[in-house]
Amino acid sequence: MMNNADASGGAAVVVRGLHVRRGRNEVLDGLSLAVPRGRIVGLLGPSGSGKTTLMRAIVGVQVIRSGEIEVLGLPAGSTALRTRVAYVTQQPSVYDDLTVRQNLRYFRRVLGAPASDVERVIGRTELGPVAERLVGTLSGGQRGRVSLAAALLGSPELLVLDEPTVGLDPVLRVELWALFRALADDGVTLLVSSHVMDEAKRCDRLLLMRDGELLADDTVDGVLEVTGTDDVEAAFLRLIERGEPDLRSPAEAADAGGHGRHAASPAPAERAPEESR
Ligand SMILES: Nc1ncnc2c1ncn2[C@@H]1O[C@H](COP(=O)(O)OP(=O)(O)OP(=O)(O)O)[C@@H](O)[C@H]1O
């Protein structure tokens, strides 16, 4: 039976058979998945399910035990991906003692992005009114936005965002999701983690994780249909009860007319990547 990682032509990210151990914990236990280009893919799961570890592996900063990760057609962590992939961690990674604009000018130079990018990303993230403020004087939400602005320098093709909406009020969350959608409309691929299940409905596809395993890799509607539920939280619980994952590729969901139940176990990779890490 085909797994989404095998129906991955043109995917931004393809992961096959990924095992990661951190300390004594087997944190990721044989994950296979694909992230389609130009889409918002939500990575959801409870705290400790392995979302950050998966993101770290995709951006190439996590030591892996085994498996293959291809990002934009290259092995994860390749030097050539440095400017094509941006990662925003849960902790804002900007300098408190510089202004917003000074931070962005600095990161722009480090990345070798065009000088005009600074004003472009300030506009895109609506940071104009606070551009001359020291980052240390901003609210948590505004600081997160500065990290995001820095990630947008150089126009990366893949954005990996670890819980970007955590701690934000509902209005700011809606604004941020509108920005994510605008970026996806421009062709950017976004992998966005959250443990807030109601953010799932804003995503084109969902990866539901629990204890280092994938419970679902499907569209929101697909997950709801397959589980016979009307919200993602209930679907998540149903998949746990059933003990069977929902790992349908877009093609399989279409073949099933949007109704067929498909229980798949990760299939062996059909083609090997050019290099493995
Ligand atoms: N440096 C580390 N050494 C050992 N174990 C770790 C380390 N970092 C994380 N872990 C363990 O790996 C597992 C997955 O952690 P991870 O941070 O990937 O989960 P998460 O889903 O992103 O959680 P959260 O939503 O709380 O950020 C957890 O059991 C965690 O305790």
TrEMBL record:
Q: Which GO terms describe its molecular function?
A: ATP binding
Q: Which organism is it from?
A: Agromyces soli
Region Disordered: which residues? 247-277
* Domain of life, per lineage: Bacteria
Q: What is this protein called?
A: ABC transporter ATP-binding protein
UniProt entry keywords in alphabetical sequence: ATP-binding, Nucleotide-binding
Q: Which InterPro entries match?
A: AAA+_ATPase, ABC_transporter-like_ATP-bd, P-loop_NTPase
Keyword Coiled coil belongs to the record: no
Tell me the SUPFAM superfamilies matching this sequence.
P-loop containing nucleoside triphosphate hydrolases
PROSITE patterns attached here? ABC_TRANSPORTER_2
**Which stretches make up the ABC transporter domain?**
13-236
